[in-house]
Each structure stands twice: as structure tokens, then as C-alpha cells.
UniProtKB/TrEMBL annotation:
Cellular component terms (Gene Ontology): endoplasmic reticulum lumen; nuclear envelope
Location of the Torsin-1A C-terminal domain: 254-307
InterPro entries, alphabetized: ClpA/B, P-loop_NTPase, TOR1A_C, Torsin, Torsin_1/2
Domain of life the protein comes from: Eukaryota
Secretion signal span: 1-20
One Gene Ontology MF term: kinesin binding
This protein's name: Torsin
Gene name in the database record: LOC114867361
Any single biological process term in GO: nuclear membrane organization
Organism: Betta splendens (Siamese fighting fish)
Family according to the record: Belongs to the ClpA/ClpB family. Torsin subfamily.
CDD domains associated with the record: AAA
Amino acid sequence: MKARHIYLLLYLFVTTSVDSFNLFSYVYERCDSNWISFNAKGLQNDLDTRLFGQEIAALLIMKAVSRFMANDNPKKPLVLSLHGPSGTGKNFVTELIAKNIYKKGMESDFVNLFVASNHFTHSNKMETYKSQLKQWIHGNVTQCERSMFIFDNMDKMHPGLIDAIVPFLNYYNKIDGVSFRKVIFIFISNAGAQIITQTALELWKNGQDRTEIKLKDVEKYISESVFNNNSSGFWHSRLIEENLVDYFVPFLPLEYEHVVQCLMALMKANGLPQKRNVARRIARDQIYFPKFERVFSLKGCKGLHNRFCDDV
Ligand SMILES: Nc1ncnc2c1ncn2[C@@H]1O[C@H](COP(=O)(O)OP(=O)(O)OP(=O)(O)O)[C@@H](O)[C@H]1O
Ligand SMILES: [Mg+2]
């Protein structure tokens, strides 16, 4: 081989390794600003246009997440606890948050979802779960301080399990050399749904708008009721006792018009023409409560996709 050829090969090797290094960081997710950066406008827009009937939750979430993400030196991790009846948008809003922080949204390696009813099923394995959970969170935050942990079905979680991770949620500077202050923890549950629904119903009966719900009262009732419910993961939890939850976010039961909005959004997402008359017909067929007044949809916007596929 001639010297000219060797030079050429050497040149190709050096330039392609630099390029492939750049390419690598574009293709493989890393804990850096290419992959993790908060899009405040995007979140506001998603909350305004895609989340229906949850003005209070939208307001709280926007405030909480934007303040937290704008602070480069938070004193503690952000802890949100989402409560409300089924199909009202608790998981949906979590997806919107993830999408506007992580380029890969819920698919990001830095977003961790635990479903209590799937991951922590055996009550005799609680001590193992506790240490695994601690190790998992510690390990992941060591890799990336802007990690997100979502605990779904908190009301089905074994009471006591969540206390294992309470130190991570606190105001500590570092635990075993790792800072948890930039982490977001989101707890999701139906706990407190009864008190939220009752309050929304009272407002409706008094002819008041659902946005007039008094946040202070609802927050207090939610935290008291979940703390005192001995079948919930929050039961007598230090999470509540030590005031580590920054925001208790109420999700209100959805009304007929919101179900129509969900159906219209589904049609659009599926590339179909948005037919309001069809949306109204499907929405009318849903189950509403109280039985005679038919104010709130029993399943919120959940399961509409199947109905929608059958009907359109
Ligand atoms: N308020 C809402 N605005 C827009 N879409 C909604 C809303 N609530 C629910 N949806 C739609 O319904 C689907 C199911 O809702 P989601 O999974 O968020 O309910 P949930 O509150 O977590 O219910 P559950 O308590 O049963 O888990 C969502 O993916 C979304 O498409
Ligand atoms: Mg859910």
C-alpha cells in the first residue's frame, strides 16, 4: 500500500470517529441539554389546548413545573401528588410534563414509571421492594440529576413502602454523595376522589363554576383523607406528615362537554374529520352520575377510544 493510501485511510478514520462521536450523542439519549430542556411555552400550550376541564390542575402544574425548572438551585425535589376520579387526565398530564422536559417524553431513560399494582404486588416482599426501590432511584439519579419518577396507583401501594424513599424527597443537600434536588416525583392516585367529586357536585348544585373550587380546602381535605385511609399507600406516611408534597393537585370529574372535546381530539389525532354530531352522540351514550342529574361522566374520558373505533 502506498503512503498516499495510508494517509487517506488515517484521515478517514480520524474524521469519521469525530463525526460518529457527535452522531452518537444525537442518536443515544444523554443527560444533557440536547435531550433534557424545559419547553415552558409547549407545556402551557398543551395544557391550554389538550387538557380539558382541569383549569385548576393546569394552573398548579404550570406554576409548579416552570418555577422548579427555572431554578438552577432548588432546595428540594419537586413533589406533586395528583388526585381525582378515573379518566380525568392524571396520567395524561404526566405525559404532557414529560414531553415538554425530555425530548423522548415518557420513552426517556430518565423517566421512570412505577405502577404499584404491577411492580409491588407481594406484601411479603416489602423489605426487598424497599431496598430495590432505594437502589433504583439512587442509581438513576447518580446517572442523571434531572430524573423523573412517577408512582401510579399510589392508593394500591402497600402502606409503608413509600416511606423508604422519603429521605430522597427531603431538603438534604446530598445523600451518599448524590443530590436529589433536581428530581421530579409525581404520585398518582384515585385517593381523595370522593371529596373532590363531592365538592364539584356542591358547586354545580349552587350554580357555581367548577373553577371556583377552593383550592386550600380541597388540598387540606385530600391530604387528610389519604393520610387517614389505611388501605392507601399514603396511610400515615411520612411523606404527608413531614409536608414533603409541594402540591396536591385535584382533578375534577369531567362533564358531558369535556367528553365531547375528548372525542373531537381523538378524531383529529386519528386523522379523521371532526364530526361534532358523532362526538355528541357517543358522549351521550356514556354513563353519568348522579343518576338523574347526569352531571359527571363515570369514566371521564377513559375508554373512549374503543367506543370511538366502534362508532366512526
Ligand atoms: N381532562 C382531559 N383532557 C383531555 N383528555 C383527557 C382528559 N382526561 C382523560 N383524557 C383522555 O383519556 C385518556 C385516559 O386518561 P388518563 O389515563 O389520564 O386517566 P386517569 O386520570 O389517569 O385515570 P385512572 O385514575 O383511571 O388511571 C387519556 O389518555 C386522554 O386521552
Ligand atoms: Mg391513571
